[in-house]
Amino acid sequence: MALYELYAHPVERGYRAGLCSKAALFLLLAAALTYIPPLLVAFRSHGFWLKRSSYEEQPTVRFQHQVLLVALLGSEPGGFLAWSTFPAFNRLQEGHLRVPLVSAREEDRNQDGKMDMLHFKLELPLQSTEQVLGVQLILTFSYQLHRMSTFVMQSMAFLQSSFAVPGSQLHVNGDLRLQQKQPLGYRGLDVRYNVSVINGTSPFASDYDLTRIVAAYQERNVTTILTDPSPIWLVGRAAEAPFVVNAVIRYPVEVISYPFC
Questions:
Q1: Closest C-alpha to 165, from 233, 230, 245
Q2: Is 64 within the bounds of a domain?
């Protein structure tokens, strides 16, 4: 015999507990574990599925007081004057050696413990018949990063300017910028380029050739270059007055690229 449903109503059961009960604490714990760990993972990893990331940092830069100068003269073909802080280089110059007066001062403008710029001045004594048509100048620096990529290297700023008219002063104002051909590692200490840009102990003239120095430097994956130097060439040098190089080099905040693994 078939049965038919004549009447039905749902049965609802409710469970109540205080906020300090074990059930309430378990519910809060389950909710916290559902949302908080994924947020922490996303924050620490700086995003999901990233292969490369970047951050900003002002590097710790210090001028190493190493200088190599070549002044191109217009008095005779192939004429030049040279000087450096490397005695071996100076011995090779013989009659082309001319010792200048050099002063350098680094400035921490915002008092954060990191230098912000270098004020460099070089006065090259000249004879009344000597005229400077161009300047090639290398300054070396110690360059360090600490925030995420622990990186230490010795770098340089290379300045080259030449003009058709003999000058009395050269004024330069630029930034020492970081150049990366590959991201920096973010684990351990990277000191692969913490070697001198110029082999100042070498007795061989080829080791001081500017073409070779610059070429070897450009082989690095991480370098610094002097950008936007805005050279100003002043003319009208008085007799017996020195040729003056004034340079202001700033150490700006950099955007550092590093791999994410």
A1: 233
A2: yes
pLDDT tens profile 203-224: 999 999 999 999 999 999 999 9
15-52 pLDDT tens trace: 777 778 877 788 888 888 888 887 777 776 655 566 67
Q: Would 198 be classed as within a structural domain?
A: yes
Mean of per-residue pLDDT scores for the chain: 89
List strand residue ranges (DSSP E) for the chain, in order: 52-57, 60-73, 80-84, 101-107, 117-124, 132-145, 150-167, 169-180, 189-190, 222-227, 232-234, 243-250, 254-259
Report yes or no on 18 lying in a domain: no
pTM of the model: 0.79
- Tell me the Ramachandran region of residue 102: left when phi exceeds 0, alpha when psi lies from -120 to 50, beta otherwise: beta
Q: What is the C-alpha to C-alpha distance for residues 78 and 74, in angstroms, rounded to an integer? A: 8
Which residue type, as a one-letter code, is found at position 239?
A
Q: Please report where in the chains the tokens 């100048």 appear, as a residue.
A: 137
- Residue 236 domain-assigned? yes
Q: What is the DSSP letter of 194?
A: -
Domain limits for position 82: 55-259
**Total structural domains in the chain?**
1
Greater pLDDT, 11 or 174: 174
